[in-house]
From TrEMBL:
tRNA-binding keyword on record: yes
Gene3D superfamilies: HUPs
Domain of life from the UniProt record: Bacteria
GO cellular component, one term: cytoplasm
Reaction(s) catalysed (UniProt annotation): cytidine(34) in elongator tRNA(Met) + acetate + ATP = N(4)-acetylcytidine(34) in elongator tRNA(Met) + AMP + diphosphate
E.C. code: 6.3.4.-
GO BP terms in the entry: tRNA modification
Name listed for the protein in its UniProt record: tRNA(Met) cytidine acetate ligase
Compartments, record wording: Cytoplasm
Length: 402
């Protein structure tokens, strides 16, 4: 059986994701779709809208055959680390290809860009240092350096100012550096951009737009045209059980406690907390009544919203710099769910997987997995604060079968 891999968050699964899955199978002629999906905390440093079990069900009900969890260490990492963990897992389960959505929609410019930055790495790094010295943020310096490097060597390159292009590039870079034979394929995003609000004239909206609509209107009805019926049912089941969708605002009392219980010096122990920000975190953490107010006070030219959220994620979950840097590669394949087709693929291939397959966590002692379980417990605590109900824990939930 031929497998294509996808790297996903499904926060939530919508019609654009369904299009991506269908096109990935069509372009690669794959028999099986394997999704590496982030758990309860995501790449932009925020808690997931709903838990990983509901999101895995959405995937399995809409064309995905296996859902594997991307460990916390990678799911909350910067793009390079996020991509490395995901591609290593897809290679470990013997995917012949991986398909990612992009604004570009054509693989050749990605390959050209990868060659450019690989062949002229020293020059690129020197340009980054120069632009950082001018006072702009690091992401802006990366973009400026890339634009200048392109001018000297005209070819068809990707626009690295577009969020899906950026992640796609890092997937390809990860596969190249890891020397995997896994083949990259890109599917063009249609109708809605990454950050676009919903448009009532369309049937595809960005996950960002859908979440905004859910939080602003506090109603499911307005997003029904943008998600498959099965996704709508999972969202409906969640809201009936837990009363609200999850965002940092939901967790604010717990996050606030996590910040102000530490001294500024103690905060610097946590992953991604850079020196200098710790005093502002404590000062404004004490005096803010909401997450939105807190972010407005600590946001600056130096610290992007995403960078701050990642810091706060690690402070909330208690993950230190030492813990984060202790792991460079996934050490297991954590199975969240499977279709009958996915189960057949596992039966035929799991003996040859590059990493151990974990279906039940109780019998496994792995320090990386322990961090995943801890992160799930912290997510559950926030959900319980908001709804007075616990979500099912990792020890009590077997892989979903569809």
């Amino acid at each position: 059986m031929k497998a294509v891999g996808v790297v996903v968050e499904y926060n939530p699964f919508h019609n654009g994701h369904y299009h991506h899955i269908e096109q990935a199978k069509k372009v690669t002629n794959a028999d099986v779709v394997i999704a590496v999906m982030s758990g309860h905390f995501l790449q932009r440093g925020e808690p997931a809208l709903i838990d990983k079990w509901h999101r895995a069900k959405m995937a399995l009900q809409n064309g995905v055959d296996l859902v594997i969890e991307l460990p916390y260490i990678f799911s909350t990492g910067q793009a390079t680390h996020f991509a490395k963990g995901a591609i290593e897992l897809l290679a470990a389960v013997h995917c012949e290809s991986f398909a990612f959505g992009s604004e570009q929609g054509n693989i050749e410019p990605f390959l050209n860009t990868q060659s450019l930055l690989n062949d002229y790495r020293d020059e690129y790094n020197n340009l980054i240092k120069y632009f950082v010295s001018t006072g702009i943020s690091y992401p802006q310096a990366l973009h400026a350096a890339y634009e200048q490097l392109k001018l000297k060597r005209p070819q068809n390159y990707i626009d690295l100012g577009m969020p899906n292009n950026i992640l796609g590039f890092h997937y390809i870079e990860a596969a190249y550096r890891l020397k995997h034979k896994i083949m990259p394929v890109t599917i063009k995003r249609i109708q809605a951009g990454f950050h676009d609000d919903i448009n009532s004239q369309l049937t595809i909206a960005s996950a960002t737009g859908i979440r905004k609509e859910l939080f602003d209107r506090e109603s499911l009805h307005h997003i029904s045209q943008y998600v498959p019926a099965s996704s709508y049912a999972q969202l409906e089941a969640w809201i009936l059980n837990y009363q609200c969708f999850i965002q940092w605002e939901t967790f604010w009392p717990l996050l606030q406690f996590s910040i102000i219980r530490n001294t500024p010096e103690e905060l610097t122990r946590f992953a991604d907390v850079s020196e200098g920000i710790e005093f502002a975190l404590v000062k404004h953490g004490k005096n803010s009544d909401s997450f939105a107010q807190f972010m407005s006070l600590i946001k600056s030219k130096r610290y992007t919203w995403t960078r701050l959220q990642r810091m706060l994620t690690h402070i909330y979950t208690g993950i230190t710099k030492e813990q984060l840097h202790a792991f460079t590669s996934p050490t297991y394949i954590r199975l969240l769910g499977m279709s009958s087709n996915g189960q057949a693929y596992l039966s035929a291939n799991k003996k040859n997987f590059e990493l151990p397959l974990i279906s039940r966590v109780a019998s496994t002692k792995d320090p990386m997995l322990a961090l995943d379980i801890h992160a799930s417990d912290m997510y559950s605590l926030g959900v319980q604060l908001a709804s007075n109900k616990k979500i099912e824990g990792d020890y009590n939930t077997p892989p979903i079968r569809i």
